[in-house]
């Protein structure tokens, strides 16, 4: 790299450090992390979104967990040291010093020379920081921009290994004592040959050493594509990903470069296994939150790694302290399902959205309402209704803007729409923001005659009996048509509300007048859930998956079935067991339950189509072949409609806000051909 481009590249990388300091500072201000020094070091103050707060919380928690474990295991030794690589404006030294954990430990921080100079000036000019560091023993010299008894700040480019070694020696680093190396989203910005050399150098030159890494993983799935694209646009490409795409590859990397022990976890596993349950609950209730999919996807794309050599006793900070489900190896796939874009729907506005609902309102006519998406080039909650109709084998779009005051519709997300006749549908629940109450029920009335698609959709508020009002004040629930003693009902189940993060109750609403009916239900009550799927089957209701009370995906399938005198919950056993998931869609066809997409914790693949035989319980997973799509297909927060005659599944919308990497909306509907997998069963 020429000197000019090397300088500009280092500036881009430094920009990521500044941005992460601002995000950590915002997370601390909201109570996610306890750190009074961040505001002194971060400079800019800016409030970030709850999803960003959670992301930086888990990052800080993972690093602190391992650092504290190192200090605890070595507390009886006379001297230890911590070497933080690419430390930026991190506050680690000040936090450790403040709580009295550095009695016999020296902290060395290394970053680009101008970053180290800025930080040194900041410390000297901030009384609270300079007092804590104590007497500096004079100005720093050369690359050593700040030098105190237990804190040294060095300005060196990490990719210049010989210069790094020389400066560390000059600053007093002792290779013979236990040393913890920290690289928090640092190595991936270096060329692989240079980061590999650094990892190997540390193992070869330090007989007792530990190495802590936190960075990105899984570049190849849809979220990974969006993540990579984001860093490429910032001109800070993630170099590690091509050679070390998953946790196992990172583990092999360290074991192959002189480290004798190495454990690694993605952040979903770390959150479940290494954070006590009361702390999990504290974080989950700090602010209104409804971006579970993006949170879990973010966590499956970052890992924490702890490697060591020569440590007695051995250093193993990543042992689960909570008995949480380990996310076992890869999910077996029985075959693939081809995906194709619909010929006449590319570039149609109004279908780039998520958190919406699509429903067949008459044969070959699909109404899509609500959600968050793109309208007139802007991201917003969607106001317009959208109709797709099929003519001569092709889907065509007819946009419908409803002729009602906006406030009645309420621009809702995560609602349901149930079609009761070809002129009438019922909207249940949904939300605007996650801190506001649910939005109640609406009738949608369509004209009887419309060939091109309904130009006017009438909207009327539904007034419910007081006992049934709670049925409507929820979102991420399900509403399913069912039959009991020859009468038609809507079964409203689960979801969440502004007050309850997860609901397990249900309501029977007799149609069409929606009178609230009590029907006795026996059997094991399913655990509370939202973002599950629900389908009508043989007069009853099939509930599958969902997100449970501890924000953990569920793998259970239940059937609410009719008995002589009432109803009964029955568990449907699947084998192999259904991989827990949520935010999927579902359909039933000839005794098979089809689950489409969703989010699960098995980071090695993304959910495709799962087929469960409801008679035998056989459960088969199929990967979606996206070879013919030119963009990442994100299959969560989508809607889908199944056309049994063609054995075609139309997927509409989907995507979400991909952490700080930008919003991804699937650009056009996708058709999945299921004929091969539905015949082969």
From TrEMBL:
Pathway annotation from the record: tRNA modification; wybutosine-tRNA(Phe) biosynthesis
Q: What is its EC number?
A: 2.1.1.290, 2.3.1.231
EC class, as a word, reads transferase
Which catalysed reactions does the entry list for this protein? 7-[(3S)-(3-amino-3-methoxycarbonyl)propyl]wyosine(37) in tRNA(Phe) + S-adenosyl-L-methionine + CO2 = wybutosine(37) in tRNA(Phe) + S-adenosyl-L-homocysteine + 2 H(+); 7-[(3S)-3-amino-3-carboxypropyl]wyosine(37) in tRNA(Phe) + S-adenosyl-L-methionine = 7-[(3S)-(3-amino-3-methoxycarbonyl)propyl]wyosine(37) in tRNA(Phe) + S-adenosyl-L-homocysteine
InterPro entries, per this entry?
Gal_Oxase/kelch_b-propeller (IPR011043), Kelch-typ_b-propeller (IPR015915), Ppm1/Ppm2/Tcmp (IPR007213), SAM-dependent_MTases_sf (IPR029063)
Show the GO MF annotations.
Answer: tRNA methyltransferase activity
- Is Disulfide bond found in the keyword set? no
Q: Keywords in UniProt for this one?
A: Methyltransferase, S-adenosyl-L-methionine, Transferase, tRNA processing
GO BP terms, alphabetized: tRNA methylation; wybutosine biosynthetic process
By its UniProt entry, which Gene3D superfamilies does this protein fall under?
Kelch-type beta propeller, Vaccinia Virus protein VP39
- Which family, according to the similarity comment? Belongs to the methyltransferase superfamily. LCMT family.
Q: What does this protein do?
A: Probable S-adenosyl-L-methionine-dependent methyltransferase that acts as a component of the wybutosine biosynthesis pathway. Wybutosine is a hyper modified guanosine with a tricyclic base found at the 3'-position adjacent to the anticodon of eukaryotic phenylalanine tRNA. May methylate the carboxyl group of leucine residues to form alpha-leucine ester residues.
Quaternary structure per UniProt?
Interacts with RNF144B/IBRDC2.
Provide the protein name: tRNA wybutosine-synthesizing protein 4
Task: State the organism named in the record.
Answer: Poecile atricapillus (Black-capped chickadee)
